[in-house]
Design goal:
CATH superfamily of chain B: Ammonia/particulate methane monooxygenase, subunit A
Number of domains of chain B: 1
CATH topology of chain B: particulate methane monooxygenase, chain B
Number of helices of chain B: 12
Shape of chain A: elongated
CATH superfamily of the largest domain in chain A: Particulate methane monooxygenase, b subunit. Chain: A, domain 1
Helix content of chain A: 10-25%
Distance between the termini of chain A: 63 Å
Distance between the termini of chain B: 40 Å
Oligomer: heterodimer
Structural class of chain B: mainly alpha
Largest sheet of chain B: 2 strands, antiparallel
Largest interface: A-B, 95 and 92 residues
CATH topology of the largest domain in chain A: Jelly Rolls
Strand order of the largest sheet of chain A: 1-3-8-5-6
Order of helices and strands of chain B: HEEHHHHHHHHEEHHH
Number of strands of chain B: 4
Number of strands of chain A: 23
CATH class of chain B: Mainly Alpha
Shape of chain B: elongated
Number of domains of chain A: 3
Radius of gyration of chain A: 31 Å
Number of helices of chain A: 9
Strand content of chain B: 5-15%
Chain lengths: 419, 271
């Protein structure tokens, strides 16, 4: 026994090691959203006021994801502007069936153009399809720039995949019970028919001696023995039969579906929300990212151009919401179903929390410290050739009114030594 | 076996020992299986790369690009195999064999890759059929015995037959539906509902240009254009099939530098 253990000790160590590794590894369920470069998440699209109507739903249940997004005014120069944009959803494949999507009050079934520095509301409605735990993001696909993901929330779908149904009625009155299986019977039968015809056609020759005998006979010039009159008749019959079946099949389809339309390739036109002048102007004096401390510190000058005193309530970037715990209205602005991992518990530290009076300019420090910078892989910002931070800052007055300003500026890394 | 070795049979005018004939049949089976798998893999890869989304998705199967691209890209392997099968073996099913391999590969891909692995429904991802055109192409070659006549007639028929032979499956997906106040086809809505995360709507290359104004029959115009291109493509790939049957070796020039005897002349010069 010991001899055996000694002999195979190396292999056994390897097996035990792999087993241990497997036992401590977590399940991989998301889809690489953290792999997007920080500039893509910080300076393109900022989603806010995000709402998920549920985080647990049975198959066929409805999921509504809604919110607002702003296209960052300092759009990265290396990305094409959002000339053709599609409102998508970041999910692991079609685990949900999308039944509706809107930007403002206009359907988003097709693509269209969006404007920078403007806000748009959106709403997507889905039907639960594949059971499991799925990470669901809103997403804007921008032509040339790729998918730009919003914050993701976990959705648990229960039940059986087989129970899923997506019915619809066509304009000519045909009721489709389930789009998942619509027309599939005809597809299977038509393919099976042609497979059978092709096999029968080929078997005529396959049943006879094939490769070497035919090759030698061809070399010997025995063509008339290789392709006989019977072979030609067989082939001609198949050609005629093929043409008859194709014409008959096409006519059958025309008769069964007399009213058809081509694929629709139009474009949508969406109107942004009315533009509201930011009541607070933000000028970034210096921004640093403390790598070992996992802390972003931004020295800003805030100028309140609005009619009422305001406080800094929230700093939002790349889907992370650093909320100022000392501003109750900002805390109340958090939807209970909003993913907790995107709300760092330490929140936003503000150098001077007293309200900024109308007309006042105040320089203060905003500090957002959390391991989320690492977890969300935003620290790779320091590797960007265009090292800038972009964010939305929410201000609240005493009546709970909110105004949103954009923050943008260069950022300097701090590695724990030197300046 | 020993007695079989001396008994002879006549196969297509050539004398064979019974033993050799039996062995050649086993050889047929082995080669057929290998060839089936090899053509399936190669042809399927070729179509995935060059027809791609038009072949994958029901909401890409339009009257213009799909109808043009699919026959032109898929006449390639049939033409090359026709050369080998016909010129070397007088077998008139090179094209049919090629597209059967292709469609088999596509269904395996749809079943295991798209449906089981990625959750896409068959209504979104069913593949087109090319078998009717391939049979006509094969029979044309058999009846004419001439690759040029086959390209002038059979290759055009291959392209022209593509749309009607697939309309049987496609028509149901072109029924009109109203979604959120917009008119779309069932195919559009299926593509919209079962989301492809990395394939947004704007990537669809469909129904562009002014061909759609051609009396509403753009599919037939596109088919005729595809027929013209198929003629050329057929000849090119017939020649490619011819090259594939030549054993080409390249002499190793380094040998003489090392004091060894030079290789014989390039066998390619004998082509």
């Amino acid at each position: 026994m010991f001899k055996f253990l000694k002999k195979y000790a190396r292999q056994m160590r390897l097996v035990v090691g792999l087993g241990l590794l497997a036992s401590v590894s977590g399940q991989v369920l998301a889809h690489g959203e953290r792999n997007q470069e920080p500039f893509l998440r910080m300076r393109t699209v900022h989603f806010y006021d995000m709402k998920w109507n549920t985080t647990e739903v049975p198959v066929n249940g409805e999921i509504v994801v809604s919110g607002t997004f702003r296209l960052f005014p300092e759009w990265p120069g290396n990305l094409p502007p959002p000339k053709r944009v599609f409102l998508g959803n970041g999910t692991p494949g079609p685990v949900l069936a999308r039944t509706e999507s809107w930007i403002g009050d206009v359907p988003a079934i097709q693509s269209g153009q969006l404007e920078l520095d403007r806000d748009y509301t959106f709403r997507s409605v889905y039907k639960a399809r594949i059971p499991g735990n799925h990470h669901v993001h809103p997403m804007l696909n921008v032509e040339g720039a790729g998918p730009l993901l919003g914050p993701g929330n976990w959705l648990a779908i229960t039940g059986n995949r087989e129970d899923f149904r997506l019915p619809i009625d066509t304009i000519d009155g045909t009721h489709i019970e389930n789009l998942e299986t619509w027309g599939v019977g005809t597809v299977f039968k038509w393919h099976a028919l042609w497979f059978a015809i092709a096999l029968v056609y080929m078997l005529w020759w396959l049943r006879k001696p094939l490769l070497m005998p035919r090759f030698l006979a061809t070399e010997a010039g025995n063509d008339d023995l290789l392709i006989t009159r019977g072979d030609r008749m067989w082939g001609a019959a198949f050609m005629v039969g093929t043409l008859v079946i194709v014409v008959a099949g096409a006519n059958w389809a025309e008769a069964k579906y007399p009213r058809t339309v081509p694929l629709q390739g139009g474009e949508a036109t969406w109107e942004p929300l009315p533009k509201q002048a930011a009541s607070v102007k933000i000028a970034v004096k210096r921004a640093t990212y403390d790598v070992p401390g996992r802390s972003m510190k931004i020295n800003v000058t805030l100028t309140n151009n609005g009619p009422k005193p305001v406080q800094v309530g929230e700093f939002l970037t790349a889907g992370l919401r650093f909320v100022n715990h000392d501003v109750p209205v900002a805390m109340a602005n958090i939807d209970p179903l909003f993913p907790k991992d995107l709300i760092p518990p330490s929140g936003l530290k503000v150098g001077d929390n007293t309200p900024i009076a109308p007309g006042e300019s105040r320089t203060m420090m905003l500090e957002a410290t959390d391991a989320a910078w690492e977890v969300e892989r935003l620290t790779s910002l320091i590797n960007d050739p265009d090292n800038r931070v972009g964010a939305l800052v929410f201000f609240f007055d005493a009546d709970g009114n909110r105004s949103i300003s954009t923050l943008s500026g260069p950022i300097v890394p701090f590695f724990g030594a030197g300046k | 076996m020993a007695s079989n070795a001396h008994e002879t049979v006549d196969i297509y005018g050539v004398k064979w020992s019974k033993w050799s004939a039996a062995l050649s049949r086993r050889f047929d089976i082995i080669v057929a299986i290998i060839l089936f798998l090899a053509v399936t893999a190669a042809f399927h890869l070729h179509v995935m790369l060059l027809v791609g989304d038009w072949d994958f998705w029901v909401d890409w199967k339009d009257r213009q690009y799909w109808v043009t691209l699919a026959p032109v890209i898929t006449i390639t392997f049939p033409a090359a195999l026709q050369y080998v099968f016909w010129e070397k073996l007088r077998l008139p099913f090179g094209a049919t064999f090629a597209v059967v391999c292709l469609i088999f590969g596509e269904w395996m891909n749809r079943k295991f890759g798209f449906y089981d692995w990625s959750y896409f429904p068959y209504s979104l991802v069913w593949p087109a059929t090319y078998i009717p055109g391939a049979i006509v192409l094969d029979v044309t070659l058999m009846l004419t015995g001439n690759f040029l006549l086959t390209s002038l007639t059979g290759a055009i028929a291959y392209a022209i037959l593509f749309y009607p032979s697939n309309w049987v499956m496609l028509a149901a997906y072109h029924l009109p539906v109203e979604v959120m106040g917009s008119l779309v086809s069932v195919a559009d809505y299926i593509g919209y509902a079962f989301t492809r995360t990395a394939t947004p709507e704007y990537l669809r290359f469909i129904e562009r240009g002014t061909l759609r104004t051609f009396g509403g029959h753009s599919a037939w115009v596109a088919s005729a254009f595809a027929g013209f291109l198929c003629m050329l493509m057929y000849i090119a790939w017939w020649y490619f099939g011819m090259l594939m049957t030549k054993v080409v070796t390249v002499p190793n020039k380094m040998k003489t530098l090392m004091g060894l005897k030079a290789d014989p002349k390039r066998s390619v010069e004998a082509i």
